[in-house]
Amino acid sequence: MSEPRKRVAILISGRGSNMSALIEAAKAPDYPAQIVGVFSNQPDAGGLQVAASHGIATAWRWHKDYPSRTGFELAIADVLKLWRPDIIALAGFMRILTPEFTEKWKGRMINIHPSLLPLHRGLHTHEAAIAAGDKEHGCTVHFVTPGMDEGPTILQARVPILPGDTPDTLAERVLAEEHRIYPEALALVARGAATFSG
Ligand code: GAR
Fold first, then answer.
1. What is the pLDDT of residue 3?
2. What pLDDT, on the 0 to 100 scale, is given for residue 1?
3. How far is the CA of 3 from the centre of ligand 1 (A)?
4. Which is it for the CA torsion 103, 107, 111, 114, positive or negative?
5. pLDDT digits (tens, 9 = 90+) for 86-129
6. What element of type H or E holds 158?
7. What is the pTM of this model?
8. Is there a contact between 189 and 142 (Cβ–Cβ < 8 Å)?
9. Atom of ligand 1 nearest to the CA of 171
10. Which residue numbers are catalytic?
11. Where do the domains of the chain lie?
12. CATH class for domain 6-191?
């Protein structure tokens, strides 16, 4: 008998195009994960409606309603208790998580970042890659550790930076690769073929 599919909660802050890529991938009967809920720190995140339209449970808690990062994370934890995820996939979730939260989910929480980490952590990565004169740019799926945009790499994809590229044209080329590798990386983690080390 095949292994039960791993339960995945996705955390978003915005439009959720990577979330959509994961939802689509999980529709395949042989995909090793199912999406059990989508959470946002932004009440108006477009991805919440998209997830609901697929019949997926959604929830939001506005981080500004909480006096501290820890208080907000306790609210996230309460939601996660209902959904009982095995894995958390951050998909454009633009909040820094505390070391306590990342430690609790060590090896079971993954993130996608629009750069070839360790290059260009943080925001505005496409501008940064062009400004640095890089010949290539890309995206990385990695396990989450306390440092922002750090942690062991699961998959990376590269794209060329072309003459005349703007941050927008480059972002579009990278995003297509994000949508390709995030479902692949989640499948690796769900199957136990990619595990956290070091
Ligand atoms: C994506 O490009 C993702 O890689 C990035 O935010 C965007 C979210 O778009 N994440 C980060 O920068 C995390 N450090 P989406 O909501 O359409 O998936």
1. 81
2. 56
3. 30
4. positive
5. 999 999 999 999 999 999 999 999 999 999 999 999 999 999 99
6. strand 153-160
7. 0.97
8. no
9. 2
10. 113
11. 6-191
12. alpha beta
